[in-house]
Amino acid sequence: MESDTSKAAEHLLDWLRDAHAMEEQAETMLTSLAGRIETYPEVKQRIERHIVETREQQRLVRGCIERLGGDTSMFKDLTGKMMATFQAFSGVFASDEIMKGAMFSYAFENLEIAAYSQLVEAAKFVGDAETAAVCERILQEERAMAQWIEHNTPGLMRQFLMRADDPESQAKR
Amino acid sequence: MESDTSKAAEHLLDWLRDAHAMEEQAETMLTSLAGRIETYPEVKQRIERHIVETREQQRLVRGCIERLGGDTSMFKDLTGKMMATFQAFSGVFASDEIMKGAMFSYAFENLEIAAYSQLVEAAKFVGDAETAAVCERILQEERAMAQWIEHNTPGLMRQFLMRADDPESQAKR
Hints:
CATH architecture of chain A: Up-down Bundle
Number of helices of chain A: 5
Oligomer: homodimer
Order of helices and strands of chain A: HHHHH
CATH topology of chain A: Ferritin
Shape of chain A: elongated
Radius of gyration of chain A: 18 Å
Distance between the termini of chain A: 53 Å
CATH class of chain A: Mainly Alpha
């Protein structure tokens, strides 16, 4: 099959590997974040739901890679570097940790949104309808998570600042 | 004035400093990116327009910081770390550089969107209408840039992959 050896098909496979590495990193970060949240139960609950989605996304992306004859053992340098920072972040305990967590999670979800948007187009380009459908499905879940963060940020901020000004309260996470 | 010494007001000032550092980093990254783009003139042009906006945003944020009695010499560790990675990225020349550039720029714009969304709420909370208005204005510019990237990604991807499969073409940037 011609498209299997085209540059476009090679890029598609590379990007699927990047996406798989990204989802593995997402699981690590989200698990660490959820484990540290103490006083924002609704945030913790939403993250836990997204961890379940993330594991399923890993499985779906792995399925696409294997169907295209690739494996998930490699991932590209650049994504690895980016992921390492998000990981470094997930170990930081700042006084405004819950708000920084919301901010970086929103950026990370949007990194995933960009990745899957590109994958949908690349899969369509090489005529791989199944990969396009899988990536479209994951894209919707990432969008839902990003929208949840956006929608809940104003309330979270007010709650955080009210607690910050209350000496009895533990606001930071 | 009570609110000047509240924890909430301290957070607001810290976050404005973070935003200022973020805009400085944005200028460095965008300048590097625009300087390397060779075969996607419409992307280069949009980035150059955003560099002009970014410089004005730095000035506006600095104005808020100075009005609140702060200075821009410090910025918080976490943001510094995050920025360093985006900077590291801006030095990478991958074979799919234009697509990775679009992806990371989209994530970065959304990091800025999250930061200014939080700042708008924090400024309203402490009753600083001027900072809220400045951050709301910048937020709209960041959203416009993110939307531009999102809107242009499908076409950019098709162009990239067509060129990737054409041995005569220089697709990567």
